[in-house]
Amino acid sequence: MPDLYDVAAIGNAIVDVIAPATDEFLAANGLDKGAMMLVDPAQSAALYAKMAAGVEASGGSAANTIAGVASFGGKGAYMGKVADDKLGEIFAHDMRAIGARFENTPLVGGPGTAISMINVTPDAQRTMCTFLGASVEFSDADVDPEVVEAATIVYLEGYLFDAEAARRAFAKAAGLAHGAGRMIALTLSDGFVVERHRAGLMGFIENQVDLLFANENEILALFQTDNFDEAVEGLRTRVKLAAVTRSAAGSVIVSAGERLTVKAEPVEKVVDTTGAGDQYAAGFMFGLSRGRSLHQCGQLASLAAAEVISHYGPRPQVSLKELAASKGY
Fold first, then answer.
1. Which of 179, 232, 321, 322 would give a disulfide with 73, using CB separation of 3.0 to 4.6 Å?
2. What would the pLDDT profile of 18-34 be if each residue is shown by its tens digit?
3. How distant, in Å, are the alpha carbons of 7, 34, 56 from that of 120?
4. Mean pLDDT across the stretch 127-136?
């Protein structure tokens, strides 16, 4: 099977609503600052009605990563579940418009397309309330073997680990990928995912994952420690390669025989941290799929993360390919 895609991703297909908010707004609506919580349709509608005017855009963690890969000039494919509704049509159009393959059949007669309401406070922290809707209906039947087997890296979104059907889809994708000599990457996505599924995630990481993405808090939660170095060392015997982000402190890339620290790219003003981890993964995997060194992969990752936190929204607003070229990356 030829290499048709740099990255093929599986994730929750979500439309994001991103708006500015105050700490008082969060408190008045019972929202824990910086956290992600799941809401039902009624809660979703009520919060949406109270939010300030903002930006609506197709999102979802892994879909944002594919958008970043495309911005670098890479070839991407995406697998996720939307409903047969207006938001589903918008999501599909947006993915195809960036040049990504997206061919999953929409859900008919079930919940609507997922939506995530993201309130961003002046300190750039984002507080997310998500109605998962149709996205949790993704199953192993939605995994396209031809796409998986033609991708250099198959990227799995940790948020999906909540759904049993999606875990079966992950297992199918991992089997197909490894059978075709491809790499499986996983992002832990959020601390709450780790807390809910630590044992299952650890088993999946040890047995199926080649490349792991996480931030500092997620990796500490995974190993149940307050010692960052101890957590990083714990990765060495469990995964071939890992990239752990530490906000302004940059990131640490670790393999069995190497540990690299990559500086964060300077940002004039941090506006919105939504999508920072998604774009970091995009830069790293684009570089890896194109044969770059681990340090160069980290530089591309940091560049993409810095671009996305400089504005509202989880996807690049400039060409990452041109930005990287201007930096000599």
1. 321
2. 899 999 999 999 999 98
3. 29, 9, 14
4. 93
Q: How many CB atoms lie within 10 A of CB 155?
A: 28
**72: enclosing H helix or E strand:** none
Q: Is residue 270 packed enough to be buried (19+ CB in 10 Å), middle (13-18) or exposed (0-12)? A: middle
Query: What number of residues does the chain have?
Result: 329
User: For domain 5-12+60-108+136-326, which CATH number applies: 3.40.50.300, 3.30.465.10, 3.40.1190.20, 3.40.50.800?
Assistant: 3.40.1190.20
- pLDDT score at 1: 58
Q: Are 79 and 143 in contact (CB under 8 A)?
A: yes
The residue written with tokens 């995630």 in the block is 201
Q: Does residue 110 register a pLDDT over 70? A: yes
Amino acid present at 219: I
Place of tokens 């402190």: 249
Please calculate the CA angle 281-188-180 and round it to the nearest 5 degrees: 65
Token output for 23 = 């700490």
Q: How far apart are CA 68 and CA 155, in angstroms?
A: 13
Residue 255 burial (CB count, 10 A): 15
What is the band of 50 on the pLDDT scale with cuts at 50, 70, 90?
very high
**Strands 14-20 and 55-59, how do they pair?**
antiparallel
Pinpoint the alpha helices (H) of 209-293: 216-223, 228-236, 276-289
Residue 84 confidence (pLDDT) above 80: yes
Task: Tell me the backbone φ, ψ of residue 131, rounded to 5 degrees.
Answer: -100, 115
Per 3-state DSSP, the chain is made up of helix, strand and coil in percentages (nearest 5) of: 45, 20, 35
pTM, entire model: 0.90
C-alpha distances (whole Å) from 148 to each of 97, 165, 173 are: 21, 18, 7
